[in-house]
Structures are given as structure tokens and as C-alpha cells.
Write a structure and sequence with these properties.
The chain is mostly helical. The chain contains 20 helices and no strands. This is Putative glycerol-3-phosphate transporter 3.
Length: about 425
């Protein structure tokens, strides 16, 4: 049984990791081709920011209000459909000659990518003991940054040799094919009739399961620390998406990098995230078993400090740029991935609520609403006040994320002390999911 379990864990984890990496191949290149789109379509910075909104607004909305799709349909079908539809949409991206059609394509891409992360977390976490989830999701989150870095490198190469219209084409074909693979292999322990040792909460869902008792948005929001964690993730994501979508053009205009140099340098943030996610997950499981929120607050604070140091040393050369961008990527990306991954999944699945994907989608989606505002806000600020003002905004938001994470830690400790019933119910199944 042990060998069968390990083989299934490996297959599901590898499929999930590759799937989410490919999703970033459909997301990251837009930041690389912005300078070319700006010139070819005569776009302002605000117009470029609206392209971010066209992707992020449906992405956030479907996570907040449709995160339960992974609970209702099951993660396997959810991921397969999203990959296939999103890949098909982005296959057409390079064929359009009108700005409006590019926005429509990005909208479809956003709405299909929204349910993927909650569903992928649910699929993977179902196969591992609860005490290993931070480490597992930390390693799973490397797909975000390795996929982002590889997607950037591929986009730079394709744009240089073939033009911007080709940057999404190969990735779109792979995404559609991968959707079929996911549906064939990503089965749950229940479907395989396998019991997971050390699994306190059953977090798998089959198509057709009764979900009539699923929590509403307001009920999920009342879970202690969910609002605070959501606000923390919101601030982290604004900073992260600014680096994801604006760092190349910032480096070109503010630090006089070439387009190719800026594109490749921007991968340093992704490299930091790929190192930070598993490292932070490992540290939390080993050193902060009884106070996960304290550990998260420390790493969020490091993210704030590193962003300030990056701004202070921006003009001092490549070494300082790379050093502090690497630290910022590790602490920001690692904290973001785990807060909207393993921690949110535990909160949603505790006490038999079976709402792991819904809570994960809620926290990640609320965070992404901040990234929705990021596009036009950064575009407006850079147009009217310069890139220095944009850096100041990133520092302030990083500091706010540290404060809200501290508040989440305080709220969680009070919930542990008093064990407040969830949304006023005395039913034992509705007690607050307490985090340790």
C-alpha cells in the first residue's frame, strides 16, 4: 500500500505542478510584450494597465464567488476545463489587430484561470497528511515562479525571433493537451479507494456530492483571521503583480535596461519566489508548528524591508538590484503562496466544513482584487508622478501587509483561547477552524 500511495502522490503532484506552471506561460508574457504593444497600438500606460484589469478582474471575481467550483465539480474536472478553455482563448491572441479584442481574450483567460489554484491545492492536499501541507504546498508553489521564469524566457525568445504575436501560441497548445491529461490521471484518494495516514479532515469531493450546505461568502468571511489574511494577501499581490507585469518596463524606462535585459532580469523575482516558497513551508512545518501565523508575520515583514532596500539602492547597479529583488521575491512569493494555499485550505476543511477550495478562492480572490486596481493605478502614477512614486507605493503596501498579518496573528490567538463558535452556531461542526 505504501508504494501505491507514493506512486499516486507523485503522479498527482507532478501533474498539478506542471499544470500550474503552464498556466503562468499563459499569464507572464503579457508583461514582456507591453513595450511592443505600447508602440504598435499607440497605447498609454493607463491603456496597458487596463489589460491587467481585463485579466485580473474576472480572475478575482470567479475566485471569490466561484471558488467552490473545485468543491462542487471536483478538482479534476475543474482544472481540465479551465486549461482547455483558457488555452484555446490564448491560442487566438496573436491573431487580433484591435486593442478591444486583446482585452476580450485576456478576460476569457482570467475567468478560466481563476478556479485553478484552489482546485489544484485541493487535489494535492487530499493526498498528504495534514502535518506536511505547508511543505507540500511550498514546493507546489515553485510552479508559479519557475513557470513564470520559464514563461518569461520563452516569451523573450519568441518575441525576439518571431514577434509578439507568437509568444502565447506554443503554451496555448500545451495547455489544451494538458487539460486532457489532467482529466485522465488526477484522481482523488476516494476514487482510488486509498486511505491517507495522518489525514484528519477529508477534503476530497466527487462530482455530484451534496454541496447544499456550502458556506456563503458572509459565513466564510466570519471565520476568524480570514479578513485579516485576505487583506495581507491583497497587499502582497499588488506588489507581486506589479513586479510580474511592470518590472520589465520599469527597468527599461527608469534604469535604462534594454528590453531583453529587463525581461531576463525580471525573472529574478520569480527565482526568489521559487526558492522562498518551499523554504518557508519547510521552516513553518519544523519551527512554527504551534504558531504558524507568527512565522508568516516574520516573513511578510522581511518582504517589506527588502522592497524598501531595493528602492533605496535602485541606482547603485545590478548587484544590489538583483540581491534585494531576490529577497523580495522569496519572502513575498513564499508568504503569498502559503497564506492562499495550505493555511487557507486547512481553515476551510477544518471541522468537516469541506470548503477548502472556497476559502482558498476567497482569500486568493480578495487578494487579486488588489492586483486588479494595480494596473491602472500604477499606470496613472508612473505617467503623472514618475517611477519613483510607484516604488514608494510598493513600499507602503508591503508595510501594510506586515501590519495586517500581525493583526491576523492576534485574532487567531484570541480564537484559540476562547474557541468562539462559527457565525453564532452551537453545532460542533460549525466551530471555528482554529489554526496551530
Amino acid at each position: 500500500m505504501s508504494s501505491i500511495l507514493k506512486r499516486n502522490q507523485m503522479v498527482v503532484f507532478a501533474t498539478a505542478w506542471i499544470s500550474y506552471a503552464v498556466i503562468y506561460f499563459l499569464r507572464k508574457p503579457i508583461g514582456i510584450i507591453k513595450p511592443v504593444l505600447e508602440s504598435e497600438f499607440s497605447l498609454s500606460k493607463t491603456d496597458l494597465g487596463l489589460m491587467d484589469v481585463a485579466f485580473l478582474l474576472p480572475y478575482a471575481t470567479i475566485q471569490v464567488f466561484g471558488g467552490h467550483l473545485g468543491d462542487k465539480l471536483g478538482p479534476r474536472l475543474t482544472i481540465a476545463l479551465c486549461l482547455s478553455i483558457g488555452g484555446t482563448a490564448m491560442f487566438t491572441f496573436g491573431a487580433w489587430n484591435r486593442y478591444g479584442l486583446l482585452l476580450v481574450t485576456m478576460f476569457i483567460n482570467g475567468i478560466t484561470q481563476g478556479p485553478c489554484w484552489p482546485a489544484i491545492c485541493k487535489a494535492v492536499c487530499a493526498w498528504y497528511p495534514d502535518q506536511q501541507l505547508n511543505s507540500v504546498v511550498g514546493v507546489l508553489s515553485t510552479s508559479v515562479y519557475i513557470g513564470g521564469a520559464a514563461g518569461t524566457a520563452l516569451a523573450v525568445h519568441l518575441q525576439y525571433y518571431y514577434g509578439w504575436r507568437m509568444v502565447f501560441l506554443p503554451s496555448a497548445v500545451v495547455a489544451v493537451a494538458l487539460g486532457v491529461v489532467v482529466y485522465c490521471v488526477m484522481q482523488s484518494p476516494e476514487e482510488k479507494h486509498i486511505t491517507i495516514p495522518g489525514k484528519e479532515s477529508m477534503i476530497t469531493t466527487k462530482i455530484g456530492d451534496d454541496v447544499g450546505n456550502r458556506r456563503t461568502f458572509c459565513q466564510l468571511w466570519k471565520i476568524p483571521a480570514v479578513p485579516e489574511v485576505s487583506m495581507t494577501v491583497l497587499c502582497l499581490k499588488v506588489v507581486r503583480y506589479c513586479m510580474l507585469l511592470w518590472l520589465p518596463i520599469f527597468l527599461v524606462h527608469y534604469l535604462q535596461y534594454s528590453v531583453a535585459q529587463a525581461g531576463m532580469f525580471s525573472t529574478i523575482f520569480d527565482v526568489g519566489g521559487s526558492l522562498g516558497s518551499p523554504l518557508i513551508g519547510f521552516i513553518l512545518d519544523r519551527k512554527f508548528k504551534k504558531n504558524t501565523f507568527l512565522g508568516m508575520w516574520l516573513f511578510v515583514s522581511i518582504s517589506s524591508i527588502s522592497m524598501a532596500l531595493f528602492a533605496m539602492t535602485a541606482k547603485l547597479g545590478f548587484f544590489y538590484n538583483a540581491l534585494f529583488m531576490l529577497i523580495a521575491g522569496a519572502s513575498n512569493g513564499g508568504a503569498d503562496s502559503l497564506l492562499a494555499g495550505s493555511l487557507s485550505m486547512k481553515m476551510g476543511e477544518a471541522n468537516g466544513m469541506r470548503s477548502g477550495a472556497a476559502v482558498t478562492g476567497l482569500i486568493n480572490g480578495v487578494g487579486t482584487f488588489g492586483a486588479v486596481c494595480e494596473g491602472p493605478v500604477v499606470g496613472y502614477i508612473s505617467d503623472h508622478y514618475g517611477w519613483g512614486a510607484m516604488l514608494t507605493l510598493m513600499i507602503v503596501l508591503s508595510a501594510v501587509s506586515s501590519l495586517t498579518m500581525f493583526r491576523a496573528m492576534v485574532v487567531q490567538r484570541k480564537a484559540d483561547r476562547y474557541a468562539i463558535p462559527h457565525h453564532g452556531s452551537s453545532n460542533s461542526e460549525d466551530k471555528v477552524p482554529l489554526m496551530s
